[in-house]
Amino acid sequence: MIVADRVTFAYEAADEPVLRSASLTVREGEYVGLIGANGCGKTTLIRQLNALLMPSEGSVTVDGLDTRDRGSVAEIRRRVGMSFQNPEHQIVGMTVEEDVAFGPGNMGLPPQELRRRVDDALAAVGIPALSKRLPHTLSGGEKRLVTIAGVIAMDPRYIAFDEPSAYLDPAARRRVLALIRSLNRERGIGIVHVAHDAREIVHADRVVVMEAGAIREEGTPRDILTRRETLRGLGLDVPPAVEILERLREAGVGVKGGALTLKEASREIAAHIREMQPGGKEQGR
Amino acid sequence: MIRPAGYLARDTALHRLDPRVKILAVFVLSAGVFAANGVDALLITAVLAGGAALAGIGVSRLFAELRPMIPVIALLFCLQALFAEGAPVDLPVLRELGVSPRGIRLGLFVSWQIACLLTAASLLTMTTPPSEIVAAIERILHPLRRLGVPSRDLAMGASVALRFLPVYLEELDRIRTARAARGGELPRQGIGARFRTARMTAVHVLLSTFRRAGELADAIEARGYVGQQATTLRELRISNRDRIALTGLALLAAGLTAGRIWG
What we know:
The structure holds two protein chains of two kinds. In chain A, 38% of the residues lie in helices and 20% in strands. Chain A is of the alpha/beta class. In chain A, the strands form two sheets. Chain A has a six-stranded mixed β-sheet, with helices on both faces. In chain A, α6 (170-187) links the parallel β7 (158-162) and β8. Chain B is an all-alpha fold. Chain B has eleven helices and no strands. In chain B, α2 runs antiparallel to α7 and α3 runs parallel beside α7. The radius of gyration of chain B is 24 Å and the shape is flat. At the A-B interface, α2, α3 and α4 of A face α8, α9 and α10 of B.
């Protein structure tokens, strides 16, 4: 379990703290969505989780290891993988496979084990064919997949994704989001998913909302993401399903709220239409 | 722009040779090229030709690598031909210019030297991926770590530089295109305007480099970079083929040295 306990943090040059007593827990195998307006401290918070930054006050522990304990830093970084926003700036290898081997290589694994990890990670993200390619010849989506493979190859228990769909076209974005879900479900990796767009985290186990360096709300996606006014007040986009149902209700249509995805919303609307039709429910299947 | 010849992905005897052996060979041949004064020049040429044949690299491909250097070679040839001391040749214009047979011979020799050095380097870079060259340099420097040479950090720096070279070229291109799109690149610019343009570009690239360096450092740190004790996919191992090549190199070096002493 990762526990960030009342973390306050200020960058050295700044007077204003970026984080104000922010607490966040991530259980093993849990999928946590983290949203908030630009500059609210999401990125700063997840950088605390693998000791890239250390709290000025409060503490962060990963499976009981404190990030301020220098002796634990290597192990913490092995357990908590980090996927940064810009894929271009985190590929360091001269070829795809060398980049994927960079993390596990730093762990000092023998070459045969390295090879196994690299092949496994490239297969997991679905790009074994790219293994010998040079990074600058890849598309944005491919670069993103390479960086995720590089994290998987370290066999982490948790991965923090900082806006993983940034810089991607819609197809690549869907692919990356599906991959993150499968890493969580099939490999049991705990996920912290920093998102700009609430739609991306409707499948999360838990949603955490940040505002001005503090945790503002926390709950299931259905609790949090269906509250249109709250989301708007925080300057966040409302999931389209929520928006549609809310507008229908505003127009006096008696649909129930609570749908998160367009699939759920259309089911709710269809049910409502069936009820309205003469003969009622008998006509519906 | 002079840049190392691109790697040609193939599977030949020269490709399979350990990169350290190839680097050593480049050194031996370069030393030989500088020391050569007769028959040994033929020997070196033969070794290079043999290497090219082993790697399946044709004369035209090698010549393409030499082409950017032709003005330099031509200049050196002319300097030697014009200014080397010796009796001038008995031909109309050349006599007046003071061109001597000895000068021509020296000019040809210098041209040959440069061609050989470039060919040796090209054969290395064409048959060895950059990553292997970096790994080899790291291993060659490895024993110096006791003297405080951070071989792994140097190799890391070199590989990051190689990794981001194309990114910079793309960025320069992007800046140029963006400027041209806004009419900033007028055909007839004075020196002053060109200088200002270059300075603006430099500032832009420098700033983005610092930003990128910060992010890159975080990414490297997050992936547990610890310097010396890391492992890589490619373990360099000396095979029998390498032993044969090393023996050949030793014989070549011995032969060239002997030729220099007693020749």
